[in-house]
Amino acid sequence: MPGFPYLPQTGRDIDEMLEVVGVKSVSELFRDIPGKFEVDISIPESKDEFTVLRDLSELSKNNVSLNDLSVFRGAGVYKHFVPSVVQAIASRGEFLTAYTPYQAEVSQGTLQMLFEFQTMICELTGMEVANSSMYDGASAAAEAALMAVRVRGGKKILLSEALHPEYIETIRTYCFGSDIDVETVSFDSETGQINIADLQKKLTQDTAGFVLGYPNFFGIIENLAEIRTLIGENIMMIVSANPISLGMLEAPGKLGADIVVGDAQPLGNSPSFGGPGLGFFASKESHIRKMPGRIIGETKDSDGRTGYVMVLQTREQHIRRNKATSNICSNHAFNALVASIYMSVVGSEGLREIARRSFDKAHYLAERIGKTDHVRLVFTGPFFNEFVARFDCDLKEFNRELLKEKILGPLELERFSEEMKNYGLICATEANLNEEIEFFAGRLEAIG
Amino acid sequence: MTIFDKSTEGRTGFYLPREESYGYEPSDTLPENSVRKESPLLPQLSELQVMRHFTGLSKKNHSVDSGFYPLGSCTMKYNPRLNERIAGLEGFSQIHPYQAEETVQGALEVMYNLQNSLCEITGMDSFTLQPAAGAHGELVGMLLMKKYFELKGENNRRKVIVPDSAHGTNPASAVMAGFEVIEVPSNGNGRVDLGSLEEILDENVAGIMLTNPNTVGLFENEICEIQEMAHKKGALLYYDGANLNAIMGHARPGDMGFDIVHLNLHKTFSTPHGMGGPGSGPVGVKNILKDLLPVPVVRFDGSKFSLDYDLPNSIGKVRSFYGNFGVFLKAYAYILTLGGDGLKRASEMAVLNANYLRARLSKLIPTAYPGLCMHEFVLKGSKLVSEYGVKTLDVAKRLLDYGIHPPTIYFPLIVDEALMVEPTETETKEALDAFADTFERILGEAKDDPNILKAAPQKTAVGRLDEATASRKPKTRWSKDT
């Protein structure tokens, strides 16, 4: 059978087209490329759809799917129930195969969806303006740090040591690029919250912003209001939040945050080995011109009909080039669609219930652990749905045992710090049914 | 009507399993000021209402699935559904980034193989898949340059040269890595002007960023000279892979002397643009830079795959985890499906389609540069302004009435009233003919009654929108009162 996948040109088409172009052969079209660069790449020859599907399906079986496990691991990527309608809508080609909405008149679906997404993010975070998405939570936090320097001046950013380690590393990299100093603030080894004395000590005239997690990496809820008061008005408080937790926790905007970022993967997006996630970015109206990323606004057409367009494009790289607020061009609009559908289906009550169940189950687990002899809770601070426990046994070995029983156990924190050997970060969500919780609690009690 | 206007208090489309609560109340353990007082105002709708709302929105979008999309520099080729199916397989979509390595061997194998395929296609030595988009890849590339010269003790290299025809992301990315951007002008043939380059290329230059073929769709045929000039001065050469679709299987940036390459999997390798993303912007480097790549790097020891974090000179991470894995799968499936022969053929057909369309349109409106093009070409709309008083914008808006997405307009900046056309290889000759016919018809309208163009579009969901007011007093969220 002749032809190549996805290429529609017949032999006759090619002949006719070459004639119109005025060349004898296709290779003549490449005459500007110096001959010495001609290559034969060594990639296996084309395959039919059925073979590719079979081969990659086989390969996918070399991974253990979360759907076959009880998952007690989060740390930035979470397993939640996702209603079927989310995938059903998101698979529509009109969303999937559209480009950035440069031509607003034929992109009203995209633009209105993103306008609604921005509204939902503002609602969750308690902020006034949100952009239409960033790559992920870590890069959003890094962009927030850069924005703090743009807004406040100064050249130092403070980071909580209890911020997600991958976020810390990402912010460091971005700050290396922009020649911004980074200093970390330790956490209180008892509560797991920010060490206020250390924070106080590190606040200097040239500090532009302070980035912290809410809940933090250890699941602990920081006292944002107190931190806000302490750092004063001249330093931006940048809060990285788990959006699910905001169904139950006070909105950071209400507690004095200047910028709220985070990863909205938990809002209906699949874990997908950590990407694509969904960065969100929200701030105050007064800072909108300093924000990175695409922002959608409402307007009217010539007949007075309501429509949506990209606004403040003069901040962006395609207009402002080397003076842009960021280099971001592609974002994660499709993941924003998924999150919008998810938030629309679950609604405010649904989100509250998901948050409360996650909280309830995690707290029950923690209480059961509190009664065991060989696993101890590490921090006393208030937490949402994750907490750290110290194991008397070899946690790696224990996790191997758990996996045999189809449990994805606590994340071994040793991977981030040698001092945390046999410390595990345990997570529960509404997707852990009570029977799973009971079974897991039983396994923890049986240690020793 | 927004989804918030359709909301009704107490309605829901969401049902959780019936389960007993363990009875832990937030107010029992959390400080009072951490407990949410007011629920976020999310819409309350039935599942069917949600379905209809979004289906309605989807109908207001132009997409590759619905019609021709010749947006220059964006490579709006068909997005094969096999790829979506593969990315959706449970064993790929439902895996956690912090699972033990032995439980994600399939995922690591995909990444490893994709890295190797990209090395082979581009002629580079190593790849990182971490960057989430093209611009993110550019940032990585610029950070690699910065780190490289820092390690060499050449901290004087603070400048990066970018052609005046470059994408806006190039200068913006260079600035984010702390560089000063110097523009090099193009010559009358649409290529980098070597004389000007010579003048600005000194010991303080860290690198030159090039797109090849460049944004006017022409191959920088003096690339050998540019490469020699750059390396002689100790600068690095950066390849923006936005236009790789023109040369896959024919020529490789690595062989042309580029030290750093970024690719756009969402352009060249058929993964969908998703209204703006997620994309994926892998970065390839020559051996001199491989130890500086972001961590982790995927390794294979002959029996198992692993993630290596031990690169002491790494620039660090530019995002969490390993990259947009869901996108890798689609690109990998595409490479497997097309194979080496198909990739080469895809480039040939992309260039043939572009040249055919160029030949047809150049009879109607001048091209910015004479002669053959690669995968895209630029038309000059300035004559329409002088002759009929219609702008490129008007032509673009009129195309919308005919169900066609306009080319990229007003870019590159070096061409007056530019229209940048990239048909891609997945379009039929009939589609190209229909576009050329439509274009001819619109030019006829411009001659007979330019107001038709100025009043366009008429057949879309909304007419021309007032962007100026929207930006002056931005309303960026729905609120109850308005």
From TrEMBL, chain B:
The glycine cleavage system catalyzes the degradation of glycine. The P protein binds the alpha-amino group of glycine through its pyridoxal phosphate cofactor; CO(2) is released and the remaining methylamine moiety is then transferred to the lipoamide cofactor of the H protein. It comes from Mesotoga infera. The gene is gcvPB. CDD domains: GDC-P. This is Probable glycine dehydrogenase (decarboxylating) subunit 2. InterPro entries: GcvPB, GDC-P_C, GDC-P_N, GDC_P, PyrdxlP-dep_Trfase, PyrdxlP-dep_Trfase_major, PyrdxlP-dep_Trfase_small. The modification N6-(pyridoxal phosphate)lysine is found at residue 267. Its EC number is 1.4.4.2. Its cofactor is pyridoxal 5'-phosphate. One of its GO terms (biological process) is glycine decarboxylation via glycine cleavage system. Belongs to the GcvP family. C-terminal subunit subfamily.
